[in-house]
Structures are given as C-alpha cells and as structure tokens.
Amino acid sequence: MSDSTESLERRIDELENQLTFQDGLIESLNITVAKQDREILELKHQFGRISERLKELGDASPGAMQQDETPPHY
To answer: What letters, b where the CB count within 10 A reaches 16 and e where it falls short, cover 16-28?
Structure first.
C-alpha cells in the first residue's frame, strides 16, 4: 500500500473511533437529560403540593401569617 492509502485508512479509523465515542456520549447525555426532566417534574409536583398545604395552613389559622403585616404602632 502506498503512504497515501495508509494515511487515509488511519484517518478513517480515527474518524470512526471519534464517531463511536460521540455516539456513546450523546446516548449518555440523553439519559441524563431524561432523568433530570423526570426529577424536575417531580419537584414541580412536590412544590405544588407544598404550596397548597401552606395555603391551607394559612386559611386555617389567619393569625399565624400576621408577620407579613405592618405592626399597628407604625
């Protein structure tokens, strides 16, 4: 084989190796993004439940949230 052919074969092998690595990396990133999406949805759901619970607690005891109000002496 000529040097030119060997050089092309080495370059093709290197490109194939890079492609294989990139395919694996993309798959790994896709798995990570999907996992984070599920976690974000769960956190949003938990936040909604906590918000509702705090609203219920505020409605049940109106005097408990007076810390946000201006004291009468101001």
So the answer is: eeeeeeeeeeeee
